[in-house]
Design brief:
Length: about 130
């Protein structure tokens, strides 16, 4: 958990062995070491006890819990960034003129290096929902 690398933590185990305590420890470490730029990161705690863990069921729950993160991410983007993301969702391929925007969105870990796909499916899902509401 050093530097600016993306980190995903999944803690699984029996009841009452300290999973939540460990998770809270990781949150404190992240806050101290990496979360200086909070617009790039979100800590989402999603207890799954008794939940049907099918993707179709989990995605709406995660979106509900993390909606503030996604809103802030969207607001932090320049209009040129948003425009390219809209076009990609509508099936367009970035043009050579989009090179700078693709590079920027790759550094923000939104797009892949080719610029034609999202790195994080939940970000894509959130933007798709925004576009449906427009």
């Amino acid at each position: 958990m050093k530097g600016d690398q993306p980190t995903s933590i999944n803690i699984v185990g029996e009841n009452h062995i300290g999973k939540s305590s460990l998770l809270h420890y990781f949150v404190r470490i992240l806050e101290q070491r990496v979360l200086q730029n909070t617009s790039r990161y979100a800590v989402i705690y999603l207890p799954l006890r008794g939940v049907d863990c099918q993707t179709e069921t989990i995605i709406p729950q995660v979106l509900e819990v993390g909606v503030q993160y996604f809103r802030e991410l969207w607001r932090s983007l320049a209009e040129s960034d948003r425009s390219l993301l809209r076009r990609i969702i509508h099936g367009e391929i970035p043009t050579p003129q989009d090179k700078g925007v693709v590079r920027k969105l790759t550094r923000k870990e939104i797009l892949t290096q080719k610029g034609n796909a999202f790195q994080v499916p939940l970000v894509q899902k959130y933007i798709e929902q925004l576009l449906e509401e427009e």
